[in-house]
Design a protein that fits this description.
Layout (H helix, E strand, L loop, with lengths): L10 H7 L2 H22 L3 H24 L5 H28 L4 H24 L7 E3 L3 H14 L7 H19 L3 E3 L12 H16 L1 H42 L3
Amino acid sequence: MKFRRPRRPSRESLRRGIFLLPSLFTVGNMLAGFASILHSIGGRLELAGWLIFLAGLLDGLDGRIARLTKSDSEFGKEYDSLADVVSFGVAPAVLAYQWGLWGMGKLGWVAAFLFVVAGSVRLARFNIRSDHGDRRYFIGLPIPGGAGAVTLLVLITPEPVMTPTGSVLVCLFVLTISLLMVSTIRYRSFKDLDLRQRWPAKAFFFIAAVVALVALSPLPAMGGMLGIYLLSGPLSWLQQRLRKAPQTAQPQTKEAQVGEGP
């Protein structure tokens, strides 16, 4: 039995697979990420940080527009991931280096490079598992969340880090975010959240309070919410471990009691 190689897609099929409207938003996402890199190198760190947030907004819109217009495709998914590597991998890494890692020399750019590697691995793993598993959870911290954590840290304290101790703390923070992205810790995706269903008055009041807090003090409020989200994964993992520990220890205790005798 001869093995037949799968046919490569023709140029015509590739043309049919490229939808203009969602792809333009993806290009805008990549453009914002590229502009952020240039501004980081030029020392305009705050502008670079806001451009990463703009990339995140465009990244959220392209998928929704593709679903609304029924123009999603495999090309769009892969192209979106490539844009995310630029906007949420390279751009935050360069921003972190220019802000607080440059004082560590080679160790600084190694930490920034590991952030890029972790983000690209996270995206590749997501593409493989996107059609499998529980869609309510992400496996590992999503790369936009990692980019947002680094960006918010810079925007809240935009002055570059000048002390060796500060550089070490920034390095540890960047490496921690990188480890969370490549970990198997589960994070809620909120894809099962149905905004069309009826919500209790308490939930509506809580959402209104959060919106008011963000309007009153945007950066600290967003930093607090993102910090809660970052901790939610490890805390949930630790809680599951603690629940499993008594269950595994209980049979051993029974066996020990049976073995005991006069």
